[in-house]
């Protein structure tokens, strides 16, 4: 199949055609995250607290899948751009094999560590029991998650952006209330129902990817036998490991911030959990645009089309800015109503509304960081991309949150978000320019 349209079509229409299916998919996924949390919040505030505490581990599982998938995506796109079909096939085949290994390891490790992890942050027996119940089911689908995400990245690498996770997300949204509240013939499973609905939705998505692969051939082929080539595996991990750390760093950040906030009140832990659910409605669609950009940048970089690479970066940045502008305005005008979706506690609503107003001041400038990081991953430059994420999620924000919380109380944590975004934006753009200056 001829992929030369990636370097021949006008850039903005091409980017939109690649990105819009992913943006729609991410919007549906964002809606699912919000709906899932909304239903869990109807069980009790303890259930919402359990979900907030489990989130970092759950995010880590997804991060390993997405991060390694980005490595696969970058390799396939580059080799297709360089007209090397054999290596493109090898990247896809080895990527799938290694993803299965990742899923097995993640299943065993995460289920084993979650009881101790929960006890670090709360002594509430109900919260711990709910967190363990949710995790045993949700983490049991780790292999499915790894394979689903790998197939998603393979499809994206060859420009098949319209095949996405939408059906699985819609399935989740429909199944959530049925299993949580026991509607009709379904058993009342409460928080375990939320976990099972999520897992079954991921199974549906994986089955759809497999069906599309076997009925509509891709420009890359998956071989039945897999001989792991060290050079190819090294290339996948060279981008995949930094990308995984990029994705996993929010889990570390949330864990650290939960530790700081829990010293003041469990209310702030709930607020942080709610914020990270709400922010997916902005950052996932922005990530959808970046996912559309990534294979285009990789292909054009492999084909030596340097000017198109820089233009793709600029257009992606402008589109991300538009999404973040919408988020900033909405969070400034209606913060309390957003928090009220997940809690009826007046103290939580008041604290959460103030947090959203402060944190959202950094949304716009964060576009520079996320676009630069995504572009560098598309170019196969995982280490510079990791530097940007380290600044956003550890090096700057954790010390800033700790120091400012000692001055302003829990509000100091919210101020740390904006300060970090402004500082990281400068570093991110300089890192992108330095990494591409020779091009």
Structure description:
With 439 residues, this protein is mostly helical. Helix 6 packs parallel to helix 8 and helix 17 runs antiparallel to helix 18. It is globular and about 60 Å long. The two termini are 28 Å apart.
Please bin the fraction of helical residues. over 70%
Number of helices: 18
Question: What is the β-strand count?
Answer: 0
As residue ranges, the low-confidence spans are none
Largest sheet: none
> What is the succession of H and E elements?
HHHHHHHHHHHHHHHHHH
What is the global morphology? globular
Structural class computed from helices and strand pairing: mainly alpha
Distance between the termini: 28 Å
* Rg estimate, integer Å: 21 Å
**SS strand fraction:** under 5%
Estimate the mean pLDDT confidence.
87
Looking at this protein, list some descriptive labels.
single chain, 439 residues, mainly alpha, 18 helices
Summarize, please:
The chain has 439 residues and is mainly alpha-helical.
Topology:
Elements: H1 5-8, H2 11-43, H3 45-81, H4 85-121, H5 125-138, H6 142-157, H7 166-181, H8 191-215, H9 230-261, H10 266-278, H11 280-302, H12 306-333, H13 335-339, H14 346-359, H15 363-378, H16 382-395, H17 397-408, H18 411-436
Helix pairs in contact: 2-3, 2-7, 2-11, 3-4, 3-5, 3-6, 3-9, 3-10, 3-11, 4-5, 4-6, 4-9, 5-8, 6-8, 7-8, 9-10, 9-16, 9-17, 10-14, 11-12, 11-15, 12-15, 14-18, 15-16, 15-18, 16-18, 17-18
């Amino acid at each position: 199949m001829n992929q030369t349209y990636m370097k021949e079509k006008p850039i903005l229409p091409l980017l939109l055609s690649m990105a819009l299916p992913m943006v729609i998919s991410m919007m549906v996924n964002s809606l699912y995250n919000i709906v899932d949390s909304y239903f869990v919040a109807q069980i009790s505030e303890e259930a919402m607290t359990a979900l907030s505490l489990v989130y970092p581990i759950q995010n880590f599982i997804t991060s390993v899948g997405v991060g390694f998938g980005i490595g696969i995506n970058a390799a396939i796109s580059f080799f297709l751009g360089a007209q090397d079909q054999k290596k493109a096939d090898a990247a896809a085949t080895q990527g799938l094999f290694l993803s299965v290994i990742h899923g097995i390891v993640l299943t065993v490790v995460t289920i084993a560590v979650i009881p101790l992890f929960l006890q670090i942050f709360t002594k509430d027996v109900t919260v711990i029991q709910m967190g363990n119940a949710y995790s045993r089911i949700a983490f049991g689908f780790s292999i499915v998650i790894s394979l689903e995400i790998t197939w998603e990245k393979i499809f994206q690498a060859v420009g098949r952006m319209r095949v996405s996770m939408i059906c699985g997300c819609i399935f989740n949204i429909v199944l959530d209330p049925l299993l949580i509240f026991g509607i009709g013939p379904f058993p009342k499973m409460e928080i375990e129902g939320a976990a099972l609905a999520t897992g079954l939705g991921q199974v549906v998505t994986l089955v759809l990817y497999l069906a599309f692969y076997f009925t509509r051939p891709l420009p890359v082929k998956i071989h039945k036998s897999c001989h792991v080539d060290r050079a190819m595996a090294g290339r996948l991990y060279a981008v995949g490991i930094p990308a995984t750390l990029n994705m996993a760093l929010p889990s570390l950040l949330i864990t650290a911030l939960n530790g700081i906030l829990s010293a003041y009140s469990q209310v702030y832990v709930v607020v942080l959990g709610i914020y990270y659910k709400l922010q997916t409605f902005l950052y996932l669609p922005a990530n959808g645009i970046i996912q559309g950009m990534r294979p285009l940048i990789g292909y054009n970089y492999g084909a030596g089309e340097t000017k198109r690479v820089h233009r793709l970066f600029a257009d992606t940045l402008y589109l991300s800015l538009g999404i973040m502008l919408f988020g900033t305005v909405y969070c400034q005008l209606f913060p309390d109503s957003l928090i009220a979706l997940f809690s009826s506690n007046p103290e939580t609503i008041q604290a959460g509304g103030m947090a959203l107003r402060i944190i959202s001041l950094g949304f716009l400038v964060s576009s520079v960081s996320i676009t630069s990081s995504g572009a560098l991953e598309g170019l196969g430059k995982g280490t510079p991309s990791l530097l940007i994420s380290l600044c956003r999620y550890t090096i700057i924000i954790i010390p800033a949150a700790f120091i400012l919380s000692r001055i302003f109380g829990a509000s100091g944590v919210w101020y740390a978000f904006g300060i970090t975004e402004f500082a990281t934006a400068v570093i991110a753009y300089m890192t992108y320019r330095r990494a591409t200056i020779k091009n």
